[in-house]
Amino acid sequence: MSSQSAPSIAQPTFRDGDFVPTREVPFSSELDEMIAEIRAGNAPNIGRFCGYCSAPLGKEDSCGVCGETTDRTPAVDKIDRELAQIYHAKRKREGLYVHLAAWTGILLATGLSILMILFLPGWTKVFAVIFLVLGGYFAGVFFGNVLIQGFAYRAGLKMFARRWAQWRASSGAARSAS
Ligand SMILES: [Zn+2]
Q1: Last-in-domain residue among 79, 104, 122
Q2: Scanning 26, 114, 122, 139, which has its CA 20 to 30 A from the CA of 41?
């Protein structure tokens, strides 16, 4: 195995299958919701956010996501544009996986019902049609919602971890200079 000397990127931490935010991967589901609302035009980009990871602070002086305190890193009143894009890209990536999985399920069910049409004798071919409709629906839901959720969840967080580290490396330097 060749070991690359690329800077190692922190992996998301999971406890009992659930993501636990850390200082290295400070994904905030609260911020995720907020960014989606802002992008949809339902909320203004204003508030009180952690100066390190941008998680909403409310009235708190320490961040529940990354543990940073406002004494060390002053709170900011806006979500960074690039960070908002990273959150959005994570959602899009997860949605893509879910769609692909759902379509895989639908195609599998369609393939199966074609086989049934070919091999079922006489009037029993009607089952193939029933299977096509119901099987396609349930396979789509099953593949899209059940089977892929965990995978999409982890893949999305991995992508977030990588892009967050890049964002932090670039904007962190800009911030400390100002
Ligand atoms: Zn924070």
Answers
A1: 79
A2: 26
Domain count, the chain: 2
Q: What residues make up the domain containing 38?
A: 12-79
| Cα dist from 139 to 73, 92, 105, 123, 158, whole Å | 49, 22, 5, 24, 27
Do 16 and 66 sit in the same domain of this protein? yes
* pTM exceeds cut of 0.85: no
31 near 86, Cβ under 8 Å?
no
What is the CA(157)–ligand 1 centre distance, in A?
Answer: 16
End-of-domain residue from the set 64, 79, 94: 79
pLDDT mean over 139-145: 84
Q: Are residues 47 and 16 in the same domain?
A: yes
Distance 6 CA to ligand 1 centre (A): 26
* 95 C-alpha to ligand 1 centroid (Å): 26
Q: How far is the CA of 120 from the centre of ligand 1 (A)?
A: 61
Model pLDDT for residues 87-130, shown as the tens digit of each residue? 999 999 999 998 999 889 889 999 999 999 999 999 999 989 88
For residues 31 and 7, which has the higher predicted lDDT (pLDDT)? 31
